[in-house]
Design goal:
The longest helix is centred in the middle third of the chain and has 21 residues. By secondary structure, the protein is of the alpha/beta class. Helix 2 runs parallel beside helix 10 and helix 8 crosses helix 9. Strand 3, helix 2 and strand 4 form a beta-alpha-beta unit.
Length: 317
């Protein structure tokens, strides 16, 4: 399915459509924070918008994002304004406090999201849950739907994901291209700050040895080979990219889900614009837009982004 969505005329390419909302679109919300202890003793912070509704939208942020990112707050506000409670949860280490355990979060582990969903349904008694995920959060959303197809609560009714690196290896290659490496460098710089904190938290753990980081870690391959893979039990970066990619989850999903990708997204490779062997799954639909950038999707003359408007219409349909 293709969309008729058009970006503001002055956002004339995917980079501007990505960068402008990231820096200049601001939607502040009156969150109520709750710290949720995980089964392994670590924690995630939950940011709630409570109206007394029995319907809940759960939004999952992207790599090195958090619940204050414009795409999270915009989506939450749009649903809360239409009768929902809202939950923007923060992955481990993403809520301004380093997490407790000798690990982080990553594309291939949706266990924390599953725990958050179950907590909302079993402890908070929500009767319907809609899931939305952006970028890495989209990967986690597809993974939680696919991995738990046989035992996901029936109260999870629909899902929308956007700007998803369905094929991690190809997407990493995309960010190595000229004119795109500055995105990758920004991620590595932010991840490096957290590794520095981990090295102080676990000074005797060789997995968090950050000596020579600035000189030796130049790209995602370096970072994932040295840190992501060994910390989280993968053989190497390539093994991580293969096993953590979410495209392979699509064929298993039983909840109606829309996968929205912009064709000018600077983060995505051609392999992120098809569903592979998930193409035959009638529960999953790939929605392609000519424009939108990476988690941008701002519209001319409208307060809602295209994704926010689309997700609301999908829920109401």
């Amino acid at each position: 399915m293709d969309t008729p969505f058009k970006a503001p005329f002055w956002q004339f390419n995917g980079h501007i459509q990505t960068i402008y909302p990231s820096f200049f679109r601001s939607i502040l919300l009156p969150y109520e924070r709750e710290r949720l202890t995980l089964p392994d003793g670590d924690f995630v912070d939950l940011d709630w918008l409570k109206t007394g509704s029995r319907k809940l939208i759960i939004v999952t942020h992207g790599l090195e994002g958090d619940s204050t990112r414009h795409y999270v707050t915009g989506m939450l506000k749009s649903f809360v304004d239409n009768g929902f409670d809202g939950l923007g949860w923060n992955c481990r280490s993403c809520s301004e406090e380093i997490n407790r355990n000798p690990r982080f979060y990553h594309h291939g582990d949706a266990g924390d999201l599953k725990y958050v969903i179950d907590y909302a349904i079993e402890e908070k008694k929500y009767e319907e849950v809609v899931l939305v995920g952006f970028s890495m959060g989209g990967s986690l959303t597809l993974r939680v739907l696919g991995e738990n197809a046989d035992h996901l609560s029936s109260k999870v009714s629909k899902a929308v994901v956007a700007s998803v690196p369905l094929d991690l290896h190809e997407s990493v290659d995309e960010l190595h291209k000229p004119g795109k490496r500055f995105y990758m460098k920004r991620f590595i710089r932010k991840l490096g700050v957290k590794l520095e904190l981990k090295s102080k938290q676990f000074p005797d753990n060789p997995l968090f040895d950050v000596s020579g980081f600035k000189e030796e870690v130049k790209d995602f391959y370096d970072f994932d080979n040295r840190f992501t893979a060994p910390i989280h039990g993968y053989k190497n970066a390539i093994d991580f990219y293969k096993l953590a990619s979410s495209k392979q989850m699509v064929k298993h999903i039983r909840v109606p889900v829309k996968i929205v990708q912009a064709l000018n997204d600077p983060f995505l490779s051609p392999e992120c614009y098809n569903l592979g062997d998930g193409v035959t799954n009638k529960n999953a639909e790939l929605v392609l837009s000519k424009v939108g950038g990476h988690v941008g999707f701002m519209q001319s003359g409208k307060p809602l982004s295209f994704i926010e408007e689309y997700a609301l219409n999908f829920y109401k349909s």
